[in-house]
């Protein structure tokens, strides 16, 4: 489903991703753990070509992201084609990133195409799915952080993405609002949504992840089931990290 192969990425002299290989099965949940600065956000951003790789490639359902291959040569896609590919990949950010001047339902419909009535109906269904049917006409400033993040999740689902990326979706929330967002994510996972989630919520990872990967200094040092990675980590780096967050 998603194939990340040999991905390298540097910013100036700083090599942030040092050869990442990761396969994500359709319908599975992959949780990425790792210390601050280890490259987690960069890895997510590479998957939808918000960052260009220096080497390696990403494929989603066989389709090369950001490039077209002709023989052995790669040509970067045009902006319009890149935007088209991004429509298949939902992205939920730490800071919600809703449009402040649009209502909840307008935020969800913003990128949708098709007959107005069908678009509206689908957006309301999505808001219902995240428990916000009654907030469709509210503006972001009238919603709690947890509610805003649930609108952002509804928006990420609006285009029926093949994959949804979450970058620390609960890190900016007050502790009492974390649960409602994790509940929505748990429901998505149960419904078979393919998800890659960067989070420090170890309880969520243990319960929901099919695979946990541990990223440290730009390398995937460990990957396995929650039991393997959380209960019997093989690497000192993983053990040291877990001892701080558990
Ligand atoms: P994480 O999400 O694991 O905290 P990031 O992927 O955000 O890590 O960042 C990894 C490293 O890359 C950090 O040292 C960060 O400062 C650096 N970095 C990230 N984005 C950029 C950028 N656009 N320009 C320069 N350095 C960056
Ligand atoms: Mg980050």
Automatic annotation (TrEMBL):
A Pfam family annotated for this UniProt entry: ABC_tran
Location of the ABC transporter domain: 2-242
Annotated localization: Cell membrane
GO cellular component: plasma membrane
UniProt topology in membrane: Peripheral membrane protein
Keywords for the protein's UniProt record, in alphabetical order: Amino-acid transport, ATP-binding, Cell membrane, Membrane, Nucleotide-binding, Transport
Similarity field: Belongs to the ABC transporter superfamily.
Protein name: Glutamate ABC transporter ATP-binding protein
Taxonomy of the source species: Bacteria, Bacillati, Actinomycetota, Actinomycetes, Micromonosporales
Family annotation (InterPro entries): AAA+_ATPase, ABC_ATPase_HisP-typ, ABC_transporter-like_ATP-bd, ABC_transporter-like_CS, MetN_ABC_transporter-like, P-loop_NTPase
Species annotation: Paractinoplanes toevensis
A GO MF term: ATP hydrolysis activity
């Amino acid at each position: 489903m998603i194939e990340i192969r040999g991905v390298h990425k540097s910013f100036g002299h700083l090599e942030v991703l040092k050869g990442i290989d990761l396969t994500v099965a359709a319908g599975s949940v992959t949780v990425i753990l790792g210390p601050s600065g280890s490259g987690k956000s960069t890895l997510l951003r590479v998957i939808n070509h918000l960052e260009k790789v220096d080497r390696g490639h990403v494929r989603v359902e066989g389709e090369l992201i950001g490039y077209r291959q002709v023989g052995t040569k790669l040509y970067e896609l045009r902006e319009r084609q890149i935007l088209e590919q991004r429509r298949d990949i939902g992205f939920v950010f730490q800071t919600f990133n809703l449009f402040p001047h649009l209502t909840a339902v307008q935020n969800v419909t913003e990128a949708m195409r098709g007959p107005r009535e069908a678009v509206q109906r689908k957006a309301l269904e999505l808001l219902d799915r995240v428990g916000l049917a009654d907030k469709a006409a509210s503006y972001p400033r009238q919603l709690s952080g947890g509610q805003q993040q649930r609108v952002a999740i509804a928006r990420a689902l609006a285009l029926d993405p093949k994959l949804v990326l979450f970058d620390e979706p609960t890190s900016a929330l007050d502790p009492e609002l974390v649960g409602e967002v994790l509940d929505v994510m748990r429901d998505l996972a149960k419904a078979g949504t393919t998800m890659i989630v960067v989070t420090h919520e170890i309880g969520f990872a243990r319960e929901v992840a099919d695979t946990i990967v541990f990223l440290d200094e730009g390398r995937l040092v460990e990957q396995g089931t929650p039991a393997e990675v959380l209960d019997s980590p093989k690497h000192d780096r993983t053990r040291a990290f877990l001892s701080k967050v558990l």
